């Protein structure tokens, strides 16, 4: 039996919260432990035991809450407690996506995605892989931060999987491409970092670049 992933949701859309209870209730390896309109409400919710909040494995966090709380502050607060954070938002705003990952979010997904995409993202985030979503691909494809190479979605996916410890063959299989093609993508990534003045020759170098650029949400 698969290990159960505990999930909490912070969103001030009550209809969405009700929907989450219904949707996630039908997924065997996911268990919704709490819903709240703000991070403060979550930390004082019924998910507490003996007066202390028990962090969920993954928190789905609405980026812009009506209480006016700082999105980055919310992300950092939840991450410090030990939860992985999957940001959910109404729009794929590039700047906000990058800022969210820099604050410590593990993924970013828009609310127009269907349940299977959400479930996959939760599982990926819980496993420490980050969520390889179209929104993230969009943000990093058009990110113009100085010194950060512009990577294609496939280049980024191969880089993340390889730097996270996968073999090149395994990274290729996950991306649905041949090992030779995966190597080509990885070589392009290395060349782009070299042109940016930040060489990355080894797997350890690449892992450092991933962390420095917030590509893994760390």
Tell me what the structure shows.
The protein has 2 domains: 126 residues, Rossmann fold, CATH 3.40.50.2300; 69 residues, Arc Repressor Mutant, subunit A (Orthogonal Bundle), CATH 1.10.10.10. The protein has 10 helices and 7 strands. It is an alpha/beta fold. It is globular, with a radius of gyration of 18 Å. Helix content is 47%, strand content 15%. The longest helix is centred in the last third of the chain and has 17 residues. Strands 2-1-5-6-7 form a 5-stranded parallel beta sheet, sandwiched between helices. A two-stranded antiparallel ribbon has the order 3-4. The model has no long low-confidence stretch (mean pLDDT 83).
Q: Topology, pairings included?
A:
Elements: E1 5-10, H1 14-24, E2 30-36, H2 39-43, E3 48-49, E4 52-53, E5 58-62, H3 71-80, E6 84-89, H4 94-103, E7 107-110, H5 115-126, H6 134-141, H7 153-163, H8 168-175, H9 179-195, H10 203-212
Helix pairs in contact: 3-4, 4-6, 7-8, 7-9, 7-10, 8-9
């Amino acid at each position: 039996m698969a290990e159960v992933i505990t999930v909490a949701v912070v969103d001030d859309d009550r209809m969405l919260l009700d929907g989450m209870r219904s949707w996630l209730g039908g997924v065997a390896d996911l268990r919704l432990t709490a819903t709240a309109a703000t991070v403060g409400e979550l930390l004082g919710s019924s998910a507490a035991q003996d007066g202390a909040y028990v962090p969920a494995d993954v928190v789905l966090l609405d980026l812009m809450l009506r209480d006016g709380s700082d999105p980055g502050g919310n992300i950092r607060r939840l991450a410090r407690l030990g939860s992985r954070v999957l940001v959910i938002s109404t729009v794929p705003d590039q700047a906000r996506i990058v800022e969210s990952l820099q604050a410590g979010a593990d993924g970013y997904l828009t609310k127009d995605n269907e349940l299977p995409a959400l479930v996959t993202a939760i599982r990926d985030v819980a496993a420490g892989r980050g969520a390889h979503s179209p929104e993230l691909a969009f943000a990093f494809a058009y990110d113009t931060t100085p010194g950060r190479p512009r990577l294609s979605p496939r280049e980024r996916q191969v880089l993340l999987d390889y730097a996270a410890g996968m073999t090149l063959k395994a990274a290729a299989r996950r991306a649905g491409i041949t090992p030779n093609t995966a190597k080509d993508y990885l070589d392009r990534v290395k060349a782009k970092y070299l042109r940016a003045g930040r060489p990355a020759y080894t797997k350890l170098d690449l892992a450092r670049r991933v962390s420095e650029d917030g590509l893994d949400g760390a």
